[in-house]
Design goal:
alpha+beta, Beta-galactosidase, Chain A, domain 5, Immunoglobulin-like, 8-stranded parallel beta sheet, 12 helices, globular, binds alpha-D-galactopyranose
Length: 709
Amino acid sequence: MITKLLSVLAMLSATCATYAKEQVVVATQNTSIVFTIGDNGRLYQSYFGKKLDNAADYALLPLGKEAYLTHGMEDYFEPALHINHSDGNTSTLLKYKSHATTRHEGYTETIIRLADPVYGDEVAMHYVAYEKENVYKTWTEISNKNKVTLEKFASSMLHFYSKKYFLTQYDGDWASEVHRHTQELLFGKKVVDSKLGARADMFTSPFFQLSFDREATENAGKVLVGTLAWSGNFRFTFEVDNIGGLRVISGINPYASQYALARGETFRTPDFIFTLSLNGTGTASRSLHDWARRYQVKDGLGDRMTLLNNWEATYFDFDQPKLLSLIGDAKKLGVDLFLLDDGWFGNKYKRYNDTQALGDWVVTADKLPDGIGGLTEEARRQGVKFGLWIEPEMVSPKSELYEKHRNWVIRYDNREEYYFRNQLVLDLGNPEVQDYVYGVVDGLMTRYPDIAYFKWDCNSPITNIYSSYQKASQSNLYIDYVKGLYRVLKRVKAKYPNLPMMLCSGGGGRTDYEALKYFVEMWPSDNTDPVERLFIQWGYSQVFPAKVQCAHVTSWNKDASLKFRVNVAMMGKLGFDINLHEMSAHDLAYCKQSVTDFNRLKPLVLEGDQYRLISPYEGNHASTMYVSKDRLRAVVFAFDVYPRYSEKLYPVVMEGLDPAATYHVKEINRADGSQGSVTAYSGNYLMTVGLPLFTGNKLCSRVYELTAR
Ligand code: GLA
C-alpha cells in the first residue's frame, strides 16, 4: 500500500514539475480565446470574449473549465471525447504536450497537442483564427497507438459563463427551410441534430446563434454564430450546468456512429466555424460572408452566371425541339447559361418521371436524338453556356445500375426496401462506388467538354441503413459516406478546377460550408414563392453570403407581381425557372431589363456588405441593402408583404454608408420601365432619418440604387 502511495506521489511530482503556468492565446482582431495549462498538466479554457487591451491581463484570468472534456474523469456533464479502449476501459485523460502557432497571410493556425499518459490517445486541437474577419475554424485530430472505438468525437467544445443564454435555431422541413426560433437555455441539455446521412439538413440547419445576457439584435448584443462544415449527421449540444456555465459541443452526430479506428489511424473531425460578435447578428453575418468568399467557397471571389433553368417550365415533359427553343429563350433573356434539369437520361428505363432511371446516365435517345452534344452545339450557336442536372449518388430501383450492382446500394438484403422519393442511396463508403460517381462527371465531361456547369442534386437521405461493403463496421457507414463523397468531390475539383457546380439537395438539404468548398453556389429551397423566399433568404443570410444563394424567378405565388418575384430573386444570385412563352412582351422586356440591372448590381449584391434593415419576421414589410466595400455604391430592396389597413409606415433607416458622402438615390427596375427621379441625400441623413420606402399596398416591391457623387 505504502509503495503504491509513494509511486503515485512520485508520479504527481514529476507531472507538477513539468508544467509551469503557461497560456495559449488564439486571437483575431476583436476577440480572443485563452487556454491555460493547469498545474495538473490539463488544458483549460480560461476565456473567450472581447480581446483584452493588455495581454499581460490574461495571466490574471481564472483557470476556467477543462477545454476538451473527456469521458470517465471527474466531470458529470456531456464530454467532448469518449474513447473505448480494447481492454474495456472507456476513460481518457488528456494532458498538455505542446503547442505551436504558425502565421499565414490573413490568419494564424495554432495546434495544441494533448495526450493520455496511460493509453497514449493523442488529440491535436487546431484553431485557425482569421484576423480581419474575426472568424475561427477549429477541428480535432484523434489518434491512438492501439485499435479503439470512438464513441464521441466533437470538433469543438466551448465554455461560457453568463447570466442568461438565448439559442436561435433555424428549422423547418422540405420547402419550408430555416424558420427562426429562439429560446432561453436553462439547466440541462438542448440538442439540435440531424440523422439524414447524405445531407446535414432537411428539418434543421447546421448553424445556430447564441446570445449572452439578452437576445442579440441586428446591431446590438454579444452573439456567437457557429456552423459545422459537414454534409452529414451533425449535432450541437448546449448544456447549462449546476453553476450556470454553458458548454457548447459541436461535431458529427455520434448517433449510430461508433467509429472503429485501426491502430495508428487518425480521425479528423469536421471543421466547426464560428464568430463572436460584440455588436449583434449583422456584424457576425458580414464577418462570415467575407470569410466564406475569401477562404471557403469554391471560386469565392469569382463571378457568377445568371441562368435559365427548365425545371419548373417543363418538369419531365420535354424533347429536343422544346429544349432548343428554351436555349434560344436564354439568349433572348440575356442570361449567361441554360440549365437542363432532371429527365434527360435512361433508355431501358426512361426518366419520364421520378420513379426510375437514376444511375443510368446516358441520354434518352428518343427524347434527345442528337444527345447532349446537340444541345451544347445549339447553346454555342446562341452564345450561351450549357449546364446539366445530375444526381450521381443515387439510384432508382428501376434502373440498369441497380440490376447490375445491387451490392453498391445502401439497402437490406433481408428486408423490404423503403424509398424516399422512389430512390435509394449508393454506398459511397465503397471505393468502387466512389470511382463510379466520379466517373459520372468525368464521363460526361469527356464526352461533352462544352458542359459549363452542373447542378448536383441529392434528393434522398440515407435510408435502409446497411452497407454490404462495411460488413462488421456498420457504424462507420454514416461517416464513411460523407468522407467518400468528399473524396469524389476533391477528384472532380482537381480535374475540373474551373467547372462551376450548384449544390442542391431536394432544396436546401446540403447547405454547409464543407460542401461549398466544391460548389460555387447552393439551392436554398424548392420553395420559390417570393414571400417564403424573403424568410428563407433572410434565414440563410445569417451564415451564408448572397453570392451562394441561388434565387430563381418562378411562377409560384400568382398573387405576387412579376416585379415582386424578380426583386426577391435579385437579392441572391439571380436565375429564372419560368416559361417565357407564357409571358407578355412587356413582362419579357421587364425580365431582360432586370438581368441588365442585376449585372450592374452584382458587385454590390454578391460582393458587398449586406445589411438586414427590416426583418420579415417583424411584420408586414422587409428591407435589405447591400453596400460596396468602398461605400460608393449601394442598393436597397423594400417589400410590402401583406400590410394591414391603415398601418403605420415607418422610414427605413439605412446602414453601412459613408456619413460624409452625398448619395444620389434613384428608384430602378420599375414595373413600367420608366426611370425614377434622382434625389441627393447625405449618408448621414440616410442613416439617421432614413427614407419612406414602404407603402400600404399588398405584395409591392421597390429597388433603389445609391451612388456617391
Ligand atoms: C430536386 C431539386 C429541384 C429539381 C428536382 C428534379 O427536388 O431541388 O430543383 O432539380 O430535384 O428532380
